[in-house]
Amino acid sequence: MQDLYDDILIQLNKDDSTEEMKKLLGVYENLATTIISFDESFSFPAFLATLLNLFGLFWTGYRIAFLTNIRDHSFYLICPFIFHLCEHLLLMISATVTNEKTAKATFIMQCLLRHCHLKTRMKIKYEKNIGSESNLTLWKIYVFDRSLLITSFGCLLTYGILLGTLGRDCQTP
Fold first, then answer.
1. Interhelix angle for 18-66 vs 70-115, to 10°?
2. Any idea what DSSP says for residue 140?
3. Cα(95)–Cα(106) distance, integer angstroms
4. Closest CA relative to residue 137, chosen from 99, 170, 88
5. What tens digit of pLDDT does each residue of 35-81 get?
């Protein structure tokens, strides 16, 4: 989908004819509909995948940081950590980039629609479709963006420090 949005943005910079604009508006409308239906179908599984990956990252990171004999189990702990990290980054970065390109294409289409010479009925139809929100979300709770990626790692670090210090305090006599 990211490549399709890139193609739309390239075409918008090249063509100025009304027919080409109608085609681009139709393609954009189809893409926005696809994003909305994709989000409706996969926002809850994306939420679960993100949550489970964060649990996996926390648990393996905690065990790596606070295990006393790490040499014996290091390979068995690092592999799940790398798996959860890669899956988390893959999900978050791809959804974030898709949302950024969607927002950019929506903004350009809105500007283009203001300056085009379409009939009033067609303009109203396209403005209605372009005005609808089409973002990828986590179970309709939070829209994927860059700050979510940074916040998720900050949350893991904070909880790790808290539980690590609590564990150390409980073990000392």
1. 160
2. T
3. 16
4. 99
5. 999 999 999 999 999 999 999 999 998 888 877 676 777 778 889 99
Query: Which residues does 168 contact at the CB level (< 8 Å), separation at least 6?
Result: none
More confident residue, 7 or 173: 7
> What are the C-alpha distances in Å from 79 to residues 75, 85, 120, 171?
6, 10, 59, 28
Report how far residue 58's alpha carbon sits from residue 55's, in angstroms, rounded to the nearest whole number: 5
Q: What is the pLDDT of residue 126?
A: 72
Distance separating alpha carbons of residues 167 and 161, to the nearest angstrom: 10
Question: Shortest CA distance to 46 belongs to which of 103, 97, 4, 88?
Answer: 88
pLDDT in tens, 120-166: 666 677 777 776 788 999 999 999 999 999 999 999 999 988 887 88
Report yes or no: 140 and 43 within 8 Å, Cβ to Cβ: yes
Tokens of 108: 């350009």
Residue 171, burial from CB neighbour count under 10 angstroms (0-12, 13-18, 19+): exposed
Distance CA 46, CA 10 (A): 30
Residue 146 and residue 93: Cα distance in Å, rounded?
8
Q: What are phi and psi of 69, to 5 degrees?
A: -105, 75
The model carries a pTM of 0.84
